[in-house]
Write a structure and sequence with these properties.
GTP Cyclohydrolase I, domain 2
Length: 115
Amino acid sequence: MIRTCAADIPAFISHSVPLPRCCPVSGNPAPGSTVRISYQTAGIVLPVEDLAAWISEYVGGHPSGLREMEAMIQDLARRAAEAVAVPVRVVADLRIDPPCAADQQRMRVSARGAA
């Protein structure tokens, strides 16, 4: 479903959602991880159900074989930019449980998607 807003009135939109555990091997990202997609709209708004569906594709490993958090964020940036037809910025604040019972790490991944 395409959602729209007035294209002649500048509007900045930001979607922020929690990330579920996605990787079937490491179980990362850990609870508390989030992703935010931001853009200045030209009239098209990213449907929240599309974002939820895209993220759910990564749970257990993406059908393309993509598993890395960095590549996931880059893919979300590409897809979001295509959907809203303007450049977007995607920032993920990840909690990562390293192997070998090391202390949990925080990782920030940022990517830009071009329309």
